[in-house]
Amino acid sequence: MAKQADSKTRSVRGSRTGRPIMVLLDLLGRRWSLRILWELRGEPLTSRALRTACDDASPTVLQARLTELREAGFVELEEGGGYGLTALGRELCETFMPLHRFAERWRSSSPSPRLRGEGRGEGGPPRRR
């Protein structure tokens, strides 16, 4: 039988145990979370620049994700007013780099134009069904 989460631990989607990997995957699986981390990997960005980099994501959703990422210790508000990655946030982004390299190789070898991103531009919004 699985251990129940500590009463102080907030329950997360997909896990009643509060296991760290499930908490992390829940956070990173939320809309725009990974994109925000990815866009901040190079340098801090203001809210406006980050919103532009995130294809004009809703300001409400963007602020909600920034708040969650700040609470998680991955993002911090810089003295100049922009958002940047913390040391922990940079470490997390580094763990994505092998996956990023793999994705680039996979995309170039994929026989599917849809999976290569053709026909809608890179980073474009998904087509509505």
Write the layout of secondary structure elements.
Layout lengths: L19 H9 L4 H8 L6 H7 L5 H13 L3 E3 L5 E3 L1 H23 L20
Antiparallel strand pairs: 1-2
Q: What is the third-level CATH name, the topology of the domain at 20-109?
A: Arc Repressor Mutant, subunit A
- Biggest sheet strand order reads 1-2
Question: Unreliable runs, pLDDT <50, ≥5 residues?
Answer: 1-10, 123-129
Shape: globular
Cα-atom radius of gyration: 17 Å
Q: Percent of residues in helical segments?
A: 40-55%
- Compute the number of strand runs: 2
Mean pLDDT: 82
| CATH-level-4 superfamily name of the domain at 20-109 | Winged helix-like DNA-binding domain superfamily/Winged helix DNA-binding domain
Give the distance, in angstroms, between the N- and C-terminal Cα atoms.
Answer: 41 Å
Number of helices: 5
Measured by DSSP, the beta-strand proportion falls in under 5%
Q: Look at the structure and give the CATH class of the domain at 20-109.
A: Mainly Alpha
Domain HTH hxlR-type: 19-111
InterPro entries: HTH_HxlR, WH-like_DNA-bd_sf, WH_DNA-bd_sf
Region (Disordered): 106-129
Keywords: DNA-binding, Transcription, Transcription regulation
Key descriptive features of the protein:
mainly alpha, 5 helices, Arc Repressor Mutant, subunit A, single chain, 129 residues, disordered C terminus, 2 strands, two-stranded antiparallel sheet, disordered N terminus, 47% helix
Description of the structure:
- With 129 residues, this protein is mostly helical.
- The chain has a domain at 20-109: Winged helix-like DNA-binding domain superfamily/Winged helix DNA-binding domain (Arc Repressor Mutant, subunit A, Orthogonal Bundle), CATH 1.10.10.
- Helix content is 47%, strand content 5%.
- The chain has helices at residues 20-28, 33-40, 47-53, 59-71, 87-109; strands at 75-77, 83-85.
- The protein has a two-stranded antiparallel ribbon with strand order 1-2.
- The model is unreliable at 1-10 and 123-129 (pLDDT under 50).
- Residues 106-129 are annotated as: Disordered.
- It comes from Bradyrhizobium nitroreducens.
- Residues 19-111 form the HTH hxlR-type domain.
- This is Transcriptional regulator.
